[in-house]
Amino acid sequence: MKKKEEKFRDAIFVIVNEESCPLYSTGEEIKVESYGLSISNYKPGCLYLARQVATVVASKESLGGITKISTQKTRYDCGGCEGLIHFEYKKDRDFATLQMKLLEEAEEKRRKKHLEKYFGVLRKIKIFAPLEDDALADLTVLLEFKSIPFGKVVVKKGSPGTNLFIILQGQVEVRADDGSKLVDLGAGEMFGEMSLLSSEPFPHSIVSLNTSQLALLSVKNFKEILKNHPVLQMFLFKLLVDRAQAMTLKSGNIASGMTGKLSEIAPVDLFQLIHASGKTGTIDISLDTGRWMIFFRDGEIVHAGYRKLRKKEAVYALLGMTSGHFSYTKGIPDILNNAPPLGGFMSMMMEGVQSLDESQDATT
Predict the structure, then answer these.
(1) Domains plus CATH for the chain?
(2) 262 and 269 Cβ atoms separated by less than 8 Å
(3) What is the mean pLDDT of residues 248-274?
(4) Which of these, 91, 105, 172, 188, has the minimum number of CB atoms within 10 Å of its CB?
(5) What does the H/E/C string look like for 47-103?
């Protein structure tokens, strides 16, 4: 006996509400035509939504037959994953277009209110200083803002990486499995970027240390930036690279090609990092007054130079610097391969710090 073919009716739906949906936004249309379902030409299809829409368009009761809409129910939900959307059936294209216009007007009002409330807050945050007002406005409307009370677990270890978190105010703590503190993060810092990019779960729990204001960028809006906002794309890329480098420095690692600012890591800490890692490489430091070069072999300083200063004198003079940019590259000139260390590393650092203290005392 031949199985009866299931009938799916053509239909147009519109998303009227979304709650943390990772894919779709309010106002987008869902179209069913000739057994095909489409939403957008660049967004992936959601199986939860496809299953629900198939149920709706296959049900005579749901649509009230081919030509008549049921007055019982024309609004549905997708069933939900970690998010949820609500969508409504429209009897023809004209009605859908009118509904879309109303939704667009409501969305425009929401965007304006969102900008008025949060644009000034973001403008005060140092990491957003490079952005022009137009770009910052674009970013503002894509962010979600939350206030987290003291002692609350913001993200639990093992949670999916669905958001980038930017701390606007307050402080959070990254905790190890035994509950001990790994690191504190404050205003202007972020977390969740690696989980967002890699889709890997959070490796640690994050707990608020006081009432904290956070800005969240969802995976969906991150993809929106990558597709439609080139300026924000470059800004976020640089932000994430800088963040990755800072975390690498904090974790005690340094790699060839790494750059940074002396205002973020003191010279003595930078030298200690290379010494502890036993690296062979060159630190190039650019200052307004000139260029410094420090050469390490197996973690020991074998030569240093700045203008007329050489060796230990150059190292000691550099320890007091708090501004300038550095870069680290693997390897040293061949002529230094057999050069002896300038002295024991720790004794040099102690002598340099003592010399710096004495020179500061002499000027006060």
Answers:
(1) 11-91 (no CATH), 117-250 (2.60.120.10), 259-363 (no CATH)
(2) no
(3) 75
(4) 105
(5) HHHHHHHHHHHHCHHHHCCCCCCCCCCCEEECCCCCCEEEEEEECCHHHHHHHHHHH
